[in-house]
Amino acid sequence: MPASVVLGTQWGDEGKGKITDLMAENADVVVRYQGGNNAGHTIVVGDEKFALSLIPSGVLYPTVTPVIGNGCVVDPKVLLDEMATLRGRGIDPSKVRVSNNAHLIMPYHRKLDAVIERFLGDAQIGTTKRGIGPAYMDKYSRFGIRAQDLFDLKIFRKKLDAALKDKNKQLTKVYNSLPLDLEEIYTEYVGFAEQLADHITDTSLIVSDALAEGKHVLFEGAQGTLLDIDHGTYPFVTSSNPVAGGAAVGSGIGPKQIDDIVGVTKAYISRVGTGPFPTELLDETGDRLIEIGGEYGVVTGRRRRCGWLDAVALRYAVRVNGLTEIALTKLDVLSHFDTIKIATAYDSDGERYTEFPRQQRVLYNCTPVYEEHKGWGDDITGARTFDDLPAAAQDYVHRIEELAGIPIRTVSVGPSRAATLKRA
Ligand code: IMP
Predict the structure, then answer these.
(1) Which of 63, 89, 170, 424 is 20 to 30 A distant from 335 in Cα terms?
(2) Residue 222: CB within 6 Å of ligand 1?
(3) For 72, which DSSP code?
(4) Model confidence, pTM
């Protein structure tokens, strides 16, 4: 299994951190291929909890080279802070490598993220306000500053000057905000350059060499399929491609080099921020899923919206990612419910949709078609093999497999590494 992608099949927060961490144990290189510090993954090792937002999970293993690929946007201050935090907890981040082609998040990106959201009012996306969208906007408008620019200060200053002239106009004239100071940003980023000099390099070469040597490379997707800029519920999405195709583009390898694509799926579903959500539960059941599931954002602390598993969306994720298997997480949360539902289709305007609708409008006004499953009631957090699960829990897993059309090879029944059931 030389090259595997692990990604979310929903709107993020599927519990990717734990699954990625488990897979990272056998990896030589772990690559983040998109997004930035908008992601948040919690990893539990023994009694210790680690919350990472930018550095790949593999950093916890001394044998792993953690790579932040060209498809990511990097806030250098956040990167340095995360490395310092890890060092403070006895973990050596010196092997972290950042692509020379990754775009940098600049102070004006963070500021614009906040003022644009404010400006949008009711239409706001509910971004993490980390500057992710504005940094990708600059990348695609060819106005961005890349990590490699930090090592040619003449070019860096020229690009910063040009960008800042434009951004300050936007900030002051459009958004009625204060301008930012060139010297201040320049000095701060020159300082970052010195501290990051050993980390920024051609990571495409690192990944390609590892693959050529038959090493195991794990590509770690952030956010989730339904937050993908192309395949998600646009415009309520992030600004990059969490889908499996993004792994090749965002790390500088060819698509044929990927062998396995693991879709992490929560046993129910959640989303943060705005946007359509057919199976959302706005009742007491939804509140219980949030409380029992601890559904509060790692990055922003926001309360997540929760609902029953959506098999229409899951099948869509199987398709757009070419998933080869599923890792099902947080099954233990459902132990607290007498009845568990799965949406197998949507009804809208007299039509039944078994495929993800091509008109997004349908997602807003449809009625999910649910099938009901009897709950199992027993605490399953102590299960260590699939056979330890009550029959009703096993049936629930089998049914999801049937609806998705691919195998569920991993079932997680608790936050610890031990609470993971592997299946052949
Ligand atoms: P942005 O990525 O900060 O621009 O936010 C765009 C949308 O993606 C918002 O709805 C965010 O709440 C959502 N989002 C971004 N990162 C994550 C994540 O890691 N988990 C869940 N939602 C996310």
Answers:
(1) 424
(2) yes
(3) B
(4) 0.96
